[in-house]
Amino acid sequence: MRCVGYRQVWEAFQNTELSAHVHQAQSAKIIQKIQDTGIAATRQLAKRQLTWLRGMPERWVEACDAPGLAERVETRVAGVWG
User: What is the pTM of this model?
Assistant: First the structure.
């Protein structure tokens, strides 16, 4: 499993003896650990993606909340594929 989130849940199930008699406090700790490791894995993935993107000299960067963004994207795409 290579997806962020699934791996953390899978590892928690493998490393924890889960049964019908798991106490609520124990299950809360398991859920918290899954959340914490999932958040950390998501941050690590984002850092790797940014590193990968920085290595692309042809990249075009725009602020996602910039005014007129849609028009600039349309113009750029039309210039490349139009």
Answer: 0.62
SS3 content of the chain, % helix, strand, coil (to 5): 65, 0, 35
How many structural domains does the chain have? 1
45 Cβ contact partners less than 8 Å away, ≥ 6 residues apart: 4
pLDDT in tens, 4-42: 888 888 888 777 665 556 677 778 888 898 899 999 999
Instruction: Provide the domain limits for residue 15.
Output: 6-81
Cβ–Cβ < 8 Å for 1, 7: yes
